[in-house]
Amino acid sequence: MARKSSTSSSSSNNRWRYILSSYYLKHTKRLVFLFISFVFLTFFVWDRQYLIREHEAEMTKLSQDLLRLQNQLQEFKSASGETMITNVLKDDPVDVQRRGKVKEAMLHAWTCYENYAWGQDELQTNNGVNSFGRLGATLIDSLDTLYIMGLDEQFQRARDLIILDGLGVAAIAGYAVFKELIFQPKEYKVYGKALERVQDDGQ
């Protein structure tokens, strides 16, 4: 019996020795390991709490921004379009003048393009011959600029040239012969469908 009780008391003492500081002072490696583990655990917990707080703050800010934007959208919808725009965007006279000058420059450049290179992309300066094919990339690329600047007549003429004259369709059709030599049948089938759609839109 005495042996059994002494064994149980020694095992309980062995368990409690890990709590005593004197044990770690004798075993410095374990003390260092315990200290590093404590520091690491502290940083890990602190970092997670910091990230959670940061995430909550970001979500709160995003919710406030969303609410503010929804309110602004409702204000725009409820007010009459022109009045609301003029109330919100008060034009600076200098900005109005600059916009006018940019629009004049665009109109001048576009008028010259219509007079000398209408539907073309690149002209030789000495004889005025198109050296790039008749794809009309310049014309197509300028449509959004014309629309945004409010040059409606120029936009309509450019759109009509693309749609009615089938600008670029002839060049694409000629290009298809070359493409047939290097495309796989499946890829050419897809290209052919796209070409048919362009030709249908042009008619």
TrEMBL record:
Transmembrane parts of this sequence: 30-46
GO biological process per UniProt: carbohydrate metabolic process
Pfam families: Glyco_hydro_47
SUPFAM superfamilies membership: Seven-hairpin glycosidases
InterPro entries, per database record: 6hp_glycosidase-like_sf, Glyco_hydro_47, Glycosyl_Hydrolase_47, Seven-hairpin_glycosidases
Coiled coil ranges: 52-79
Gene Ontology cellular component list: endoplasmic reticulum; Golgi membrane
Pathway(s) it belongs to: Protein modification; protein glycosylation
Enzyme Commission number(s) from the entry: 3.2.1.-
Gene3D superfamilies, per database record: 1.50.10.10
Single Gene Ontology MF annotation: mannosyl-oligosaccharide 1,2-alpha-mannosidase activity
Cofactor: Ca(2+)
The entry's keywords: Coiled coil, Disulfide bond, Glycosidase, Hydrolase, Membrane, Transmembrane, Transmembrane helix
Family of the protein in this entry: Belongs to the glycosyl hydrolase 47 family.
Protein name: alpha-1,2-Mannosidase
Taxonomic classification: Eukaryota, Viridiplantae, Streptophyta, Embryophyta, Tracheophyta
